[in-house]
Design goal:
Length: about 500
Protein backbone atom coordinates (compact mmCIF):
# COMPACT_ATOMS: atom_id res chain seq x y z
CA UNK A 1 0.00 0.00 0.00
CA UNK A 2 1.20 3.49 -0.87
CA UNK A 3 1.20 6.31 1.68
CA UNK A 4 1.75 9.98 0.97
CA UNK A 5 3.44 13.09 2.20
CA UNK A 6 1.06 15.46 3.94
CA UNK A 7 1.39 18.88 2.38
CA UNK A 8 -1.07 21.76 2.63
CA UNK A 9 -3.78 19.47 3.97
CA UNK A 10 -3.45 16.92 1.16
CA UNK A 11 -1.90 13.49 0.95
CA UNK A 12 0.36 13.26 -2.06
CA UNK A 13 3.22 11.22 -3.52
CA UNK A 14 6.69 12.65 -3.97
CA UNK A 15 7.19 14.80 -7.06
CA UNK A 16 10.27 12.62 -7.59
CA UNK A 17 8.06 9.58 -8.17
CA UNK A 18 10.34 7.58 -5.89
CA UNK A 19 9.33 5.40 -2.94
CA UNK A 20 10.86 3.49 -0.08
CA UNK A 21 9.55 0.44 1.75
CA UNK A 22 8.72 0.27 5.43
CA UNK A 23 9.07 -3.20 6.97
CA UNK A 24 8.47 -4.73 10.38
CA UNK A 25 11.87 -5.30 12.05
CA UNK A 26 10.53 -8.32 13.96
CA UNK A 27 9.45 -9.98 10.70
CA UNK A 28 10.68 -8.38 7.51
CA UNK A 29 8.19 -10.36 5.42
CA UNK A 30 5.61 -7.95 6.82
CA UNK A 31 5.65 -4.84 4.62
CA UNK A 32 3.80 -1.92 6.19
CA UNK A 33 3.75 0.08 3.00
CA UNK A 34 5.59 2.31 0.58
CA UNK A 35 6.33 5.92 1.46
CA UNK A 36 7.53 8.81 -0.69
CA UNK A 37 11.28 9.23 -1.04
CA UNK A 38 11.03 12.97 -1.27
CA UNK A 39 13.32 15.43 -2.97
CA UNK A 40 14.06 19.12 -2.44
CA UNK A 41 11.03 19.95 -4.60
CA UNK A 42 8.67 18.30 -2.13
CA UNK A 43 10.33 20.17 0.71
CA UNK A 44 9.87 23.36 -1.28
CA UNK A 45 6.13 22.73 -1.62
CA UNK A 46 5.76 21.96 2.08
CA UNK A 47 7.72 25.03 3.17
CA UNK A 48 5.67 27.24 0.83
CA UNK A 49 2.48 25.85 2.37
CA UNK A 50 3.82 26.37 5.89
CA UNK A 51 4.88 29.90 5.09
CA UNK A 52 1.49 30.84 3.65
CA UNK A 53 -0.33 29.27 6.60
CA UNK A 54 1.87 31.12 9.09
CA UNK A 55 0.27 34.45 8.14
CA UNK A 56 -3.06 33.40 9.67
CA UNK A 57 -2.03 30.81 12.24
CA UNK A 58 0.17 33.25 14.16
CA UNK A 59 -2.86 35.57 14.57
CA UNK A 60 -5.15 32.91 16.00
CA UNK A 61 -5.16 33.57 19.75
CA UNK A 62 -2.85 31.17 21.58
CA UNK A 63 -5.65 29.82 23.82
CA UNK A 64 -7.52 28.81 20.66
CA UNK A 65 -4.45 27.11 19.26
CA UNK A 66 -4.26 25.38 22.64
CA UNK A 67 -7.83 24.14 22.26
CA UNK A 68 -6.87 22.42 19.01
CA UNK A 69 -3.96 20.73 20.77
CA UNK A 70 -6.30 19.61 23.53
CA UNK A 71 -8.34 17.92 20.81
CA UNK A 72 -5.14 16.30 19.50
CA UNK A 73 -4.54 14.96 23.02
CA UNK A 74 -8.09 13.59 23.24
CA UNK A 75 -7.75 11.82 19.89
CA UNK A 76 -4.45 10.32 21.02
CA UNK A 77 -6.22 9.00 24.11
CA UNK A 78 -8.98 7.47 21.97
CA UNK A 79 -6.53 5.88 19.55
CA UNK A 80 -3.78 4.99 22.01
CA UNK A 81 -4.01 1.23 21.57
CA UNK A 82 -4.19 1.40 17.78
CA UNK A 83 -1.18 3.73 17.65
CA UNK A 84 0.80 1.57 20.07
CA UNK A 85 0.20 -1.52 17.93
CA UNK A 86 1.17 0.29 14.76
CA UNK A 87 4.31 1.51 16.51
CA UNK A 88 5.36 -1.94 17.70
CA UNK A 89 4.78 -3.34 14.25
CA UNK A 90 6.80 -0.59 12.65
CA UNK A 91 9.78 -0.16 15.00
CA UNK A 92 9.63 -3.17 17.27
CA UNK A 93 9.49 -1.94 20.85
CA UNK A 94 7.25 -4.05 23.11
CA UNK A 95 3.62 -2.98 23.31
CA UNK A 96 3.86 -1.85 26.90
CA UNK A 97 6.60 0.59 25.88
CA UNK A 98 4.76 1.68 22.74
CA UNK A 99 1.78 2.58 24.92
CA UNK A 100 4.15 4.62 27.06
CA UNK A 101 5.40 6.41 23.96
CA UNK A 102 1.86 7.43 23.00
CA UNK A 103 1.18 8.43 26.61
CA UNK A 104 4.18 10.76 26.53
CA UNK A 105 2.63 12.47 23.49
CA UNK A 106 -0.72 12.71 25.29
CA UNK A 107 0.97 14.37 28.28
CA UNK A 108 2.79 16.73 25.95
CA UNK A 109 -0.41 17.64 24.10
CA UNK A 110 -2.26 18.55 27.30
CA UNK A 111 0.72 20.48 28.61
CA UNK A 112 0.98 22.44 25.34
CA UNK A 113 -2.79 22.99 25.32
CA UNK A 114 -2.71 24.61 28.74
CA UNK A 115 0.36 26.65 27.81
CA UNK A 116 -1.85 28.41 25.25
CA UNK A 117 -3.32 30.23 28.26
CA UNK A 118 0.08 31.13 29.69
CA UNK A 119 2.97 31.84 27.32
CA UNK A 120 3.91 34.34 29.99
CA UNK A 121 5.94 37.40 29.20
CA UNK A 122 7.44 39.84 31.69
CA UNK A 123 6.44 43.35 32.64
CA UNK A 124 9.04 45.44 34.44
CA UNK A 125 9.37 49.02 35.60
CA UNK A 126 11.08 51.40 33.22
CA UNK A 127 14.04 53.48 34.35
CA UNK A 128 12.11 56.54 33.08
CA UNK A 129 8.81 57.98 34.32
CA UNK A 130 5.60 57.50 32.38
CA UNK A 131 6.99 54.60 30.48
CA UNK A 132 6.31 50.85 30.74
CA UNK A 133 8.35 47.89 29.62
CA UNK A 134 6.76 44.66 28.45
CA UNK A 135 7.86 41.55 26.62
CA UNK A 136 5.95 39.01 24.59
CA UNK A 137 6.74 35.59 23.20
CA UNK A 138 6.41 35.69 19.41
CA UNK A 139 6.45 32.71 17.06
CA UNK A 140 9.63 32.10 15.11
CA UNK A 141 8.02 31.20 11.77
CA UNK A 142 8.33 28.01 9.75
CA UNK A 143 9.99 25.30 11.87
CA UNK A 144 11.75 22.30 10.34
CA UNK A 145 11.55 19.23 12.55
CA UNK A 146 13.70 16.16 12.02
CA UNK A 147 13.30 13.14 14.28
CA UNK A 148 14.52 9.60 14.93
CA UNK A 149 12.54 6.36 14.89
CA UNK A 150 13.00 5.15 18.47
CA UNK A 151 10.28 7.36 19.97
CA UNK A 152 8.26 7.84 16.79
CA UNK A 153 5.33 9.68 18.39
CA UNK A 154 6.62 10.97 21.74
CA UNK A 155 9.75 12.80 20.60
CA UNK A 156 8.13 14.46 17.56
CA UNK A 157 5.30 15.59 19.84
CA UNK A 158 7.82 17.31 22.15
CA UNK A 159 8.72 19.54 19.27
CA UNK A 160 5.57 19.77 17.14
CA UNK A 161 2.99 20.54 19.84
CA UNK A 162 4.92 23.38 21.53
CA UNK A 163 5.88 24.76 18.10
CA UNK A 164 2.23 24.92 17.09
CA UNK A 165 0.84 26.38 20.30
CA UNK A 166 3.43 29.17 20.04
CA UNK A 167 2.04 30.10 16.61
CA UNK A 168 4.69 28.52 14.38
CA UNK A 169 3.98 26.33 11.40
CA UNK A 170 5.79 23.05 10.88
CA UNK A 171 7.42 20.89 8.22
CA UNK A 172 8.34 17.53 9.73
CA UNK A 173 10.78 15.06 8.19
CA UNK A 174 10.28 11.89 10.24
CA UNK A 175 12.70 8.98 10.24
CA UNK A 176 12.49 6.64 7.25
CA UNK A 177 12.29 3.83 9.82
CA UNK A 178 9.00 5.10 11.28
CA UNK A 179 7.01 6.83 8.54
CA UNK A 180 3.72 5.10 9.33
CA UNK A 181 3.58 6.44 12.88
CA UNK A 182 4.25 9.89 11.43
CA UNK A 183 1.27 9.65 9.11
CA UNK A 184 -0.97 8.41 11.89
CA UNK A 185 0.02 11.43 13.95
CA UNK A 186 -0.60 13.69 10.94
CA UNK A 187 -4.08 12.20 10.54
CA UNK A 188 -4.83 13.03 14.15
CA UNK A 189 -3.65 16.62 13.78
CA UNK A 190 -5.81 16.99 10.68
CA UNK A 191 -8.84 15.45 12.40
CA UNK A 192 -8.36 17.76 15.39
CA UNK A 193 -8.77 20.72 13.05
CA UNK A 194 -5.22 22.01 12.64
CA UNK A 195 -5.67 24.03 9.41
CA UNK A 196 -4.11 23.00 6.10
CA UNK A 197 -0.51 24.10 5.72
CA UNK A 198 0.07 24.65 9.43
CA UNK A 199 1.52 21.17 9.79
CA UNK A 200 3.16 19.23 6.97
CA UNK A 201 4.99 15.91 6.69
CA UNK A 202 7.67 15.19 4.11
CA UNK A 203 9.07 11.65 4.11
CA UNK A 204 12.47 10.64 2.89
CA UNK A 205 16.12 10.32 3.75
CA UNK A 206 19.01 12.74 4.23
CA UNK A 207 18.26 14.43 0.90
CA UNK A 208 14.90 15.74 2.13
CA UNK A 209 16.37 16.47 5.57
CA UNK A 210 19.19 18.52 4.12
CA UNK A 211 16.83 20.46 1.84
CA UNK A 212 14.74 21.32 4.87
CA UNK A 213 17.74 22.47 6.90
CA UNK A 214 19.05 24.58 4.03
CA UNK A 215 15.74 26.15 3.04
CA UNK A 216 16.03 29.91 3.60
CA UNK A 217 12.38 30.26 4.66
CA UNK A 218 12.80 27.74 7.47
CA UNK A 219 13.68 29.82 10.53
CA UNK A 220 14.32 27.04 13.04
CA UNK A 221 15.49 23.44 13.03
CA UNK A 222 14.70 21.08 15.91
CA UNK A 223 16.52 17.78 15.55
CA UNK A 224 16.81 14.50 17.45
CA UNK A 225 19.40 12.03 16.20
CA UNK A 226 23.10 11.32 16.11
CA UNK A 227 25.78 13.78 17.14
CA UNK A 228 27.44 13.47 13.72
CA UNK A 229 24.30 14.59 11.87
CA UNK A 230 23.50 17.20 14.52
CA UNK A 231 26.89 18.81 14.03
CA UNK A 232 26.30 19.08 10.29
CA UNK A 233 22.91 20.65 10.89
CA UNK A 234 24.39 23.10 13.38
CA UNK A 235 27.06 24.14 10.86
CA UNK A 236 24.47 24.89 8.18
CA UNK A 237 22.21 26.69 10.65
CA UNK A 238 25.21 28.70 11.82
CA UNK A 239 25.92 29.93 8.32
CA UNK A 240 22.29 30.92 7.88
CA UNK A 241 21.66 32.41 11.36
CA UNK A 242 18.98 29.84 11.89
CA UNK A 243 17.80 28.89 15.34
CA UNK A 244 18.64 25.27 16.01
CA UNK A 245 17.87 22.91 18.88
CA UNK A 246 19.71 19.60 18.94
CA UNK A 247 19.13 16.44 20.98
CA UNK A 248 21.96 14.06 20.15
CA UNK A 249 23.89 11.07 21.42
CA UNK A 250 24.42 9.68 24.87
CA UNK A 251 26.61 7.19 26.71
CA UNK A 252 24.72 7.25 29.95
CA UNK A 253 26.37 6.02 33.15
CA UNK A 254 24.67 4.30 36.07
CA UNK A 255 26.68 4.09 39.31
CA UNK A 256 26.02 1.49 42.01
CA UNK A 257 27.60 2.17 45.44
CA UNK A 258 28.02 -0.49 48.15
CA UNK A 259 25.15 0.95 50.21
CA UNK A 260 22.69 0.88 47.27
CA UNK A 261 19.33 -0.86 47.52
CA UNK A 262 20.61 -3.80 45.45
CA UNK A 263 17.33 -5.30 44.29
CA UNK A 264 16.21 -1.91 43.03
CA UNK A 265 19.55 -1.32 41.32
CA UNK A 266 19.39 -4.66 39.52
CA UNK A 267 15.91 -3.95 38.23
CA UNK A 268 17.00 -0.46 37.23
CA UNK A 269 20.00 -1.65 35.24
CA UNK A 270 17.94 -4.24 33.36
CA UNK A 271 15.30 -1.69 32.44
CA UNK A 272 17.78 1.08 31.62
CA UNK A 273 20.13 -1.05 29.53
CA UNK A 274 17.79 -3.44 27.75
CA UNK A 275 14.47 -1.56 27.68
CA UNK A 276 13.70 -0.48 24.08
CA UNK A 277 16.54 -2.91 23.20
CA UNK A 278 18.96 -0.24 24.38
CA UNK A 279 17.82 1.96 21.52
CA UNK A 280 17.19 5.13 23.52
CA UNK A 281 19.38 8.15 23.67
CA UNK A 282 18.89 7.85 27.43
CA UNK A 283 19.75 4.11 27.61
CA UNK A 284 22.05 2.94 30.38
CA UNK A 285 25.13 1.96 28.40
CA UNK A 286 27.82 2.23 31.06
CA UNK A 287 27.46 0.49 34.42
CA UNK A 288 29.93 1.72 37.01
CA UNK A 289 30.17 -0.68 39.95
CA UNK A 290 31.95 -0.16 43.26
CA UNK A 291 34.48 -2.95 43.70
CA UNK A 292 33.00 -4.09 47.05
CA UNK A 293 29.76 -5.23 45.41
CA UNK A 294 30.89 -5.72 41.81
CA UNK A 295 31.22 -9.51 41.74
CA UNK A 296 27.93 -10.34 43.44
CA UNK A 297 26.02 -7.64 41.55
CA UNK A 298 27.34 -8.85 38.23
CA UNK A 299 26.52 -12.45 38.93
CA UNK A 300 22.88 -11.56 39.66
CA UNK A 301 22.71 -9.18 36.73
CA UNK A 302 23.90 -11.81 34.27
CA UNK A 303 21.44 -14.31 35.69
CA UNK A 304 18.53 -11.93 35.24
CA UNK A 305 19.61 -10.56 31.89
CA UNK A 306 19.87 -14.06 30.48
CA UNK A 307 16.24 -14.63 31.52
CA UNK A 308 14.98 -11.67 29.47
CA UNK A 309 12.70 -12.81 26.67
CA UNK A 310 13.71 -11.42 23.30
CA UNK A 311 11.01 -11.50 20.66
CA UNK A 312 8.26 -9.81 18.73
CA UNK A 313 7.03 -6.83 20.72
CA UNK A 314 3.42 -7.60 19.81
CA UNK A 315 3.61 -10.60 22.16
CA UNK A 316 2.86 -9.40 25.66
CA UNK A 317 5.50 -11.73 27.13
CA UNK A 318 8.37 -10.06 25.24
CA UNK A 319 10.84 -7.98 27.27
CA UNK A 320 13.25 -7.04 24.49
CA UNK A 321 12.18 -6.37 20.90
CA UNK A 322 14.18 -6.41 17.66
CA UNK A 323 16.88 -4.04 16.43
CA UNK A 324 15.50 -1.44 14.05
CA UNK A 325 17.23 -2.49 10.81
CA UNK A 326 20.02 -4.53 9.23
CA UNK A 327 22.48 -1.64 9.28
CA UNK A 328 22.08 -1.15 13.02
CA UNK A 329 22.35 -4.88 13.62
CA UNK A 330 25.68 -4.94 11.77
CA UNK A 331 26.86 -1.92 13.70
CA UNK A 332 26.13 -3.66 17.00
CA UNK A 333 27.96 -6.78 15.83
CA UNK A 334 30.94 -4.66 14.85
CA UNK A 335 31.02 -3.09 18.31
CA UNK A 336 31.04 -6.53 19.91
CA UNK A 337 34.09 -7.40 17.79
CA UNK A 338 35.73 -4.12 18.76
CA UNK A 339 35.06 -4.83 22.45
CA UNK A 340 36.64 -8.28 22.19
CA UNK A 341 39.67 -6.94 20.34
CA UNK A 342 40.10 -4.23 22.95
CA UNK A 343 40.31 -6.88 25.66
CA UNK A 344 36.94 -6.44 27.34
CA UNK A 345 35.39 -9.63 28.69
CA UNK A 346 32.13 -10.73 27.07
CA UNK A 347 30.04 -12.29 29.85
CA UNK A 348 26.65 -12.42 28.14
CA UNK A 349 25.24 -12.46 24.62
CA UNK A 350 27.28 -10.82 21.90
CA UNK A 351 25.52 -12.48 18.99
CA UNK A 352 22.50 -12.33 16.71
CA UNK A 353 19.50 -14.57 17.35
CA UNK A 354 18.63 -16.43 14.19
CA UNK A 355 16.81 -19.62 15.05
CA UNK A 356 13.08 -20.31 14.73
CA UNK A 357 10.89 -17.26 15.06
CA UNK A 358 13.97 -15.02 15.02
CA UNK A 359 14.85 -16.01 11.46
CA UNK A 360 12.91 -13.23 9.77
CA UNK A 361 13.77 -10.34 12.09
CA UNK A 362 16.72 -8.37 13.40
CA UNK A 363 17.31 -9.84 16.84
CA UNK A 364 20.34 -9.51 19.07
CA UNK A 365 20.96 -11.11 22.46
CA UNK A 366 21.26 -8.83 25.51
CA UNK A 367 25.00 -8.32 25.83
CA UNK A 368 27.26 -7.49 28.76
CA UNK A 369 30.98 -6.69 28.69
CA UNK A 370 33.00 -6.46 31.90
CA UNK A 371 36.56 -5.22 32.49
CA UNK A 372 35.77 -2.23 30.31
CA UNK A 373 38.19 0.66 30.71
CA UNK A 374 37.63 4.29 29.74
CA UNK A 375 40.02 4.13 26.80
CA UNK A 376 37.97 1.46 25.03
CA UNK A 377 35.66 2.41 22.20
CA UNK A 378 32.81 0.40 23.73
CA UNK A 379 33.11 2.69 26.76
CA UNK A 380 33.19 5.88 24.69
CA UNK A 381 30.98 5.46 21.62
CA UNK A 382 27.21 5.30 21.41
CA UNK A 383 26.21 1.82 20.19
CA UNK A 384 22.40 2.20 20.33
CA UNK A 385 21.66 -1.42 21.08
CA UNK A 386 21.42 -3.92 23.95
CA UNK A 387 25.09 -3.71 24.91
CA UNK A 388 26.12 -2.80 28.45
CA UNK A 389 29.74 -1.96 29.34
CA UNK A 390 30.74 -2.53 32.97
CA UNK A 391 33.60 -0.73 34.70
CA UNK A 392 34.70 -1.27 38.30
CA UNK A 393 35.83 1.59 40.58
CA UNK A 394 37.06 2.02 44.16
CA UNK A 395 35.27 5.15 45.37
CA UNK A 396 32.47 7.63 44.73
CA UNK A 397 35.04 10.14 43.46
CA UNK A 398 36.41 7.65 40.96
CA UNK A 399 32.88 6.66 39.91
CA UNK A 400 32.01 10.26 39.13
CA UNK A 401 35.29 10.84 37.30
CA UNK A 402 34.73 7.71 35.20
CA UNK A 403 31.11 8.74 34.52
CA UNK A 404 32.27 12.18 33.37
CA UNK A 405 34.99 10.74 31.16
CA UNK A 406 32.72 10.98 28.14
CA UNK A 407 32.08 13.19 25.18
CA UNK A 408 28.37 13.01 25.99
CA UNK A 409 26.23 14.29 28.84
CA UNK A 410 22.56 13.38 28.55
CA UNK A 411 21.36 11.19 31.41
CA UNK A 412 23.06 9.72 34.48
CA UNK A 413 22.10 7.76 37.54
CA UNK A 414 23.35 6.71 40.96
CA UNK A 415 22.03 4.07 43.34
CA UNK A 416 22.85 4.80 46.97
CA UNK A 417 21.15 5.27 50.32
CA UNK A 418 23.67 7.93 51.32
CA UNK A 419 22.21 11.38 50.87
CA UNK A 420 25.65 12.99 50.80
CA UNK A 421 26.77 10.75 47.95
CA UNK A 422 23.51 11.46 46.11
CA UNK A 423 23.93 15.22 46.34
CA UNK A 424 27.57 15.02 45.31
CA UNK A 425 26.48 13.10 42.24
CA UNK A 426 23.79 15.70 41.49
CA UNK A 427 26.40 18.43 41.81
CA UNK A 428 29.24 16.76 39.94
CA UNK A 429 27.81 14.52 37.21
CA UNK A 430 28.12 16.29 33.87
CA UNK A 431 24.69 15.51 32.47
CA UNK A 432 21.42 17.23 31.70
CA UNK A 433 19.53 14.66 33.76
CA UNK A 434 20.51 12.81 36.97
CA UNK A 435 18.38 10.09 38.53
CA UNK A 436 18.75 8.98 42.14
CA UNK A 437 17.77 5.34 42.69
CA UNK A 438 16.18 5.10 39.26
CA UNK A 439 17.72 4.17 35.90
CA UNK A 440 18.79 6.65 33.22
CA UNK A 441 15.56 6.36 31.22
CA UNK A 442 12.08 7.62 32.00
CA UNK A 443 12.00 11.38 31.57
CA UNK A 444 8.60 13.00 32.13
CA UNK A 445 7.00 15.35 29.62
CA UNK A 446 6.73 18.35 31.92
CA UNK A 447 10.43 18.54 32.85
CA UNK A 448 13.30 19.95 30.78
CA UNK A 449 14.94 17.25 28.64
CA UNK A 450 18.35 17.50 27.09
CA UNK A 451 22.04 17.20 27.70
CA UNK A 452 25.39 18.91 27.96
CA UNK A 453 28.66 18.47 26.04
CA UNK A 454 28.24 16.64 22.70
CA UNK A 455 24.63 15.73 23.53
CA UNK A 456 23.09 19.13 23.03
CA UNK A 457 23.56 22.75 22.10
CA UNK A 458 22.16 24.44 25.16
CA UNK A 459 18.43 23.94 24.66
CA UNK A 460 15.97 21.85 26.64
CA UNK A 461 12.86 20.33 25.14
CA UNK A 462 10.00 19.32 27.40
CA UNK A 463 8.57 21.24 30.30
CA UNK A 464 8.49 25.02 30.34
CA UNK A 465 11.88 25.37 28.67
CA UNK A 466 10.74 24.13 25.24
CA UNK A 467 8.82 27.38 24.82
CA UNK A 468 12.13 29.23 24.84
CA UNK A 469 13.10 27.27 21.75
CA UNK A 470 9.94 27.93 19.78
CA UNK A 471 9.54 31.64 20.52
CA UNK A 472 11.49 34.83 20.02
CA UNK A 473 11.16 37.62 22.56
CA UNK A 474 9.56 40.88 21.47
CA UNK A 475 10.49 43.68 23.85
CA UNK A 476 8.08 46.63 23.93
CA UNK A 477 8.55 50.09 25.43
CA UNK A 478 5.49 52.30 25.76
CA UNK A 479 6.30 55.92 26.53
CA UNK A 480 3.26 57.99 27.55
CA UNK A 481 5.22 60.99 28.86
CA UNK A 482 4.49 63.00 25.73
CA UNK A 483 8.13 64.07 25.36
CA UNK A 484 11.40 62.61 24.17
CA UNK A 485 12.90 60.67 27.07
CA UNK A 486 16.41 59.41 26.61
CA UNK A 487 17.26 56.11 28.27
CA UNK A 488 20.60 56.08 30.12
CA UNK A 489 20.82 59.88 29.77
CA UNK A 490 17.74 61.50 31.30
CA UNK A 491 17.75 59.31 34.38
CA UNK A 492 19.21 62.02 36.66
CA UNK A 493 16.08 64.20 36.63
CA UNK A 494 14.07 63.77 39.82
CA UNK A 495 10.46 63.86 38.80
CA UNK A 496 7.40 62.29 40.26
CA UNK A 497 6.18 61.34 36.83
CA UNK A 498 3.02 63.45 36.90
C1 LIG B 1 15.05 9.28 23.32
O1 LIG B 1 15.63 8.23 23.55
O2 LIG B 1 15.25 9.89 22.25
O3 LIG B 1 13.51 9.38 29.14
C2 LIG B 1 14.06 9.90 24.24
C3 LIG B 1 13.25 8.52 28.29
C4 LIG B 1 12.10 8.77 27.36
C5 LIG B 1 12.54 9.60 26.20
C6 LIG B 1 13.73 9.07 25.45
N1 LIG B 1 11.03 9.41 28.07
O4 LIG B 1 13.91 7.51 28.19
Amino acid sequence: MEHGNYINGRWQPSLSGRWFEDRNPADTRDCIGRFPLSSAEDVEAAVAAAKAAFARWRLLPAPRRGELLRRVGELLVERKEELARAMTREMGKPLVEARGDVQEAIDTAFYAASEGRRLFGYTTPSELPNKVNLSFRMPVGVCGIITAWNFPIAVPSWKIFPALVCGNTVVWKPSEDAPHCANLLAQILAEAGIPAGVFNVVHGDAEAGEALVRHPEVRLIAFTGSTAVGRRIAAICGEQNKKCSLEMGGKNPLIVLPDAPMELALEGVLWGAFGTTGQRCTATSRLILHRDIAASFLQQLIERASALRVGNGLEETTHVGPIINARQLERIETYVQIGLQEGARLVLGGHRLIDGDYAHGYFFAPTIFTDVTPTMRIFREEIFGPVLSVTTVDSLEEAIAVANDSEYGLSSSIYTRDITAAFRAIRDLEAGITYINAPTIGAEAHMPFGGVKATGNGHREGGWTVFDIFTEWKTVYIDYSGRLQRAQIDTERLEDGA
